[in-house]
Write a structure and sequence with these properties.
- The structure is a single chain.
- About 20% of the residues lie in helices and about 30% in strands.
- It contains six helices and 14 strands.
- It is globular and about 40 Å long.
């Protein structure tokens, strides 16, 4: 299995495609630029199986509707943010100089931590709130890789001054859910460059 990072939209939010030799793929956080993203997926010959969201801020969900409709695939989101896909006031797009982002409800609402299997892909879900109440991270043990959304960045952490954010909760999430992973685990954040758990334990000034 491999992955591809594609920064999308005005905030350059990282969309990740996880794919196998058969070119089946999962789409994580399709944040915008729907035409560019769909063209890339089709150009590579990928067959998406699902859209998975680390959280539902507007810059992570801007292309969800177009991707799900193009391939008729389900969308996964934590139940704490089940209304955010439909409500620009909740997902934050109403407060920005852009077209409001809204769409249909997700098909699957994540209710607890645990293993998730979609086709040939197996992962673990960690609840990592703090940046937003329904933030989750997806851990691929077989690849020593975790998608941290906007919880943990290379040298930084997510902001906590938005709706439902809480700094203490975020710090607890990072320490209790992410920093317990093997130090060689690759961290794929919602913005910026990848890092490792070990690098962040050693040098991240915010934690």
């Amino acid at each position: 299995m491999e992955w591809k990072q594609i920064p999308l939209g005005p905030l350059q939010t990282n969309c990740y495609l996880f794919f196998n030799e058969e070119k089946q793929c999962l789409v994580f956080d399709p944040g915008g630029e729907n035409v560019r993203l769909i063209d890339y997926i089709e150009g590579e010959g990928f067959q998406p199986l699902a859209v998975l969201l680390t959280h539902a801020h507007f810059d992570h969900i801007g292309a969800v509707e177009d991707v799900r409709k193009r391939w008729d695939i389900p969308v996964y989101i934590h139940q704490e943010e089940r209304e955010w896909l439909m409500d620009p006031a909740l997902n934050g797009s109403a407060r920005h100089p852009m077209a409001p982002v809204s769409g249909s409800p997700a098909d699957h609402h994540i209710q607890e931590e645990g293993k998730l299997t979609i086709g040939p892909f197996e992962m673990e879900i960690f609840e990592t709130p703090g940046h937003s109440p329904g933030s989750v991270s997806y851990y691929f043990k077989s690849m020593d890789t975790v998608l941290s959304g906007d919880a943990l960045f290379n040298g930084g952490i997510g902001r906590t001054d938005l709706l439902g954010g809480d700094h203490d909760t975020l710090i607890q999430s990072i320490h209790h859910k992410l920093f317990v992973l093997p130090e060689h685990t690759v961290v794929l954040p919602g913005h910026g460059f990848s890092t490792t758990i070990g690098n962040e334990i050693e040098s991240n000034p915010y934690v």
